[in-house]
Amino acid sequence: MIDFHCHLDLFPSPERTADAIERAGTYLLSVTNTPKAFPKTAQSAKGRKRIRTALGLHPQLVKERHNEVALFKRLLGETRYVGEVGIDGGDDCAPFLDLQREVFDELLEACSSVGGRFLSIHSRHASGEVVEALTKHRAAGVPILHWYSGSQSHADKAVEIGAWFSVCLPMLRSRRAGSLIRRLPRDRILTETDAPFVSTPDIDYPVRAVSDAENALARHWECDVTEVRRQLHANLASLVEKSSKFPLSNAG
Predict the structure, then answer these.
(1) Cα 202 to the center of its chain, rounded Å
(2) Residue pair 75/55 in contact by the 8 Å Cβ criterion
């Protein structure tokens, strides 16, 4: 199974959750919300072959944490994965939208300067702004739009510039999911949970959230869930092949 957007550090016991992830055989991207959270979160995943830790600066926290951009740049050489980053256009974040755009541009430029990264990207109520920024910073790496809820036209533009999409169960259950999922390239889709924010009742890790997402994809794609899993694992393998293009400058 694949979970390409999960907040491992926000579980009550990250170590216990990491053990559950290993037992489930899940390949997981552990995203962080601030650069300061990255070192400890990466330590929790150390030695675990199926977990990778991403360096993030969540757009909803930019107003309070924009002074951590310098730390983000210093830590960027330690991982090939960046997230959660992006722009949030919701009512609560609109007052500092200009600052979000400025910070997102700076983070993308930093990724470009080190040869690119895999980017797990937040775009709630801001899909147009996010796609515009990604178009301007094509060298930033491979964008993976997390829990995409924007327009079809913006999704089409994202596809044109090489973006991928990580999809979760609530997204796949939405009224708009069918038409969107059928238009997205199957070879650029991965599953995610966004746990622990969106979860099923499992105690340590929401395995069912991934398997239910696979079943939902099978319904949208009108195929067997075995074929869905085959496609998703082929997609992940294709993504991993690109990792050698993103050199690390520090150990880790």
Answers:
(1) 22
(2) yes
Tell me the C-alpha distance between 58 and 85, whole Å. 5
Q: Sign of the C-alpha dihedral, residues 10, 14, 20, 25?
A: positive
Name the one residue in this structure whose structure tokens are 């199926």. 50
CA angle 70, 75, 78 (to 5 degrees): 160
- pTM value surpassing 0.85: yes
- What is the predicted pLDDT for the residue at 201? 58
Neighbours of 12 (CB within 10 A): 9
* Per-block mean pLDDT, blocks of 10 residues, the chain (252 long): 96 92 94 98 91 97 97 97 97 96 98 97 97 97 96 97 96 88 96 86 81 96 97 96 83 42
Cross-strand pairs, 164: 144
Q: Which residues lie below 8 Å from residue 84, measured CB to CB, with a gap of 6+?
A: 5, 31, 32, 33, 54, 56, 58, 120, 121, 122, 146
Given a contact cutoff of 8 angstroms between Cβ atoms, the answer to whether 119 and 141 are in contact is yes
Listed residue (107, 128, 93) closest to 57, CA to CA: 107
CA distance 17 to 129: 34
Q: Which helix (H) or strand (E) holds 157?
A: helix 152-160
For residue 26, give the 3-state DSSP assignment: coil
Residue 109 region, left (φ>0) first, then alpha (ψ -120 to 50), else beta? alpha
Find out whether 191 and 3 touch, Cβ atoms under 8 Å. yes
Q: Which residues of 191-230 are buried (b: 16+ CB within 10 A; e: fewer)?
A: bbbbbeebbeeeebbbbebbbbbbebbbebbeeeeeebbe
